[in-house]
Specification:
Blueprint: H1 13-21, E1 24-29, E2 41-47, H2 53-61, E3 79-85, E4 88-92, H3 103-119, E5 123-131, H4 138-149, E6 154-159, H5 166-183, E7 187-191, H6 200-211
Parallel strand pairs: 2-4, 2-5, 5-6, 6-7
Antiparallel strand pairs: 1-3, 3-4
Length: about 220
């Protein structure tokens, strides 16, 4: 499955907010065999620890406490499923790249994450979050490589865009876009800032497309 060549129609913001505000916590799993039935549609959120996954989930769902935001990297230690509608899920994956956990736990996270990305048929797309000040790290590229193997569409949210000036943020996005065009044509990219809701509507477009909510 590849990203569509056409422009994704813009969602009605109010309708999207109402839809995603209805999201509820469904389940947390720590083993592949604990995953819900592999049916329906899922969109996963991935990224380095402290890249802003929890903040993005909260702002997109309009729920401050849906995903707990912590100043301590590595807080998400399980695969968390949030139900948008029957057989429609947002999936919060463990952050990667944080060293202050036991090696055995880190290896388990990596194996579970790789198997989920490789085998999960319901997974329709990945929102990959990167701190705009430190994009496309080696671990981010490993994630993109994993998705490229199964041609899984990836949309990158360059988080914390409010930390840079408008010009610097636009330049960073163009540089990432150039790298993606050469190495990862299945991926696209946008600016995102949770505190200001910058990029929220564009992110809704991808969620709607992958979860099958567009008419």
């Amino acid at each position: 499955m590849r990203n569509p060549d056409y422009s994704v129609p813009i969602s009605q913001t109010a309708a999207a907010v109402r839809l995603y505000q209805a999201v509820r916590f469904f389940n947390s799993v720590n083993e592949f065999g604990q995953l819900p039935p592999d049916t329906g549609c899922e969109v996963a959120f991935a990224g380095r620890s402290n890249a802003g996954k929890s903040s993005a989930l909260n702002i997109l769902t309009g729920q401050r406490q849906l995903a707990r935001v912590s100043k301590t990297p590595g807080r998400t230690q399980m695969i968390n499923f949030f139900e948008v509608a029957p057989e429609r899920y947002l999936v919060d994956l463990p952050g990667y790249g944080y060293a202050k956990v036991p090696d055995a736990i880190r290896r388990h996270w990596q194996e579970l994450l790789e198997r989920y990305l490789r085998e999960r048929a319901a997974l329709r797309g990945l929102l990959l979050l990167m701190d705009i000040r430190h994009p496309l790290t080696e671990l981010d590229r490993q994630m993109l490589d994993c998705c490229a193997v199964r041609q899984l569409p990836v949309h990158i949210l360059l988080t914390k865009a409010d930390k840079l000036s408008r010009g610097a943020a636009a330049a960073a996005r163009q540089q990432v876009k150039k790298s993606l065009r050469a190495d990862y044509p299945q991926a696209s990219v946008q600016l995102f800032a949770a505190p200001t809701s910058q990029g929220r509507d564009e992110a809704y477009q991808w969620l709607d497309e992958w979860l099958g909510f567009q008419s």
